[in-house]
From TrEMBL:
It comes from the Bacteria. This is GNAT family N-acetyltransferase. It comes from Nocardioides bruguierae. Residues 10-148 form the N-acetyltransferase domain. CDD domains: NAT_SF.
Amino acid sequence: MTDDETRAAARIVRRPDDEAHLVADVDRSLAQCAEDAALEPLVAWDARWCGLEVPAAPAVGFAVLEARGGVGFVLRLMVAPEQRGQGYGRALLDAVVARARRVPSVEMVATSHRAENTVMASLCAAAGFTAWETPFAHDADEVYLRLP
């Protein structure tokens, strides 16, 4: 897929307005990716569409991987509301972690989420993420995690 096709597919994954305090929307995320080469947008489809140059169904999820300073950081992760509860979140998180581990400069994989985001907290715990005492200042309402 071209960058334009990837961006168009990502824009299908809409964040509900009532989750604006939990995760940035796709348009903002794509704008950040366009400005920063360390950010990589990733779009997820149902596995039934693997092998097609352009999947025949809408994307089910969107993520942004940041590779900087030896850390592969899952900066964004969202699943389309109508696709939730089917395992796409875990599959997308696993795929982003695998992608991060393929980046030669990445020594550690980490993420963060708002303290009130219990869905992301459960997802990260199930994937094996543990608390990370970061060496930098951060928002007290943000929970930082890393894979051991």
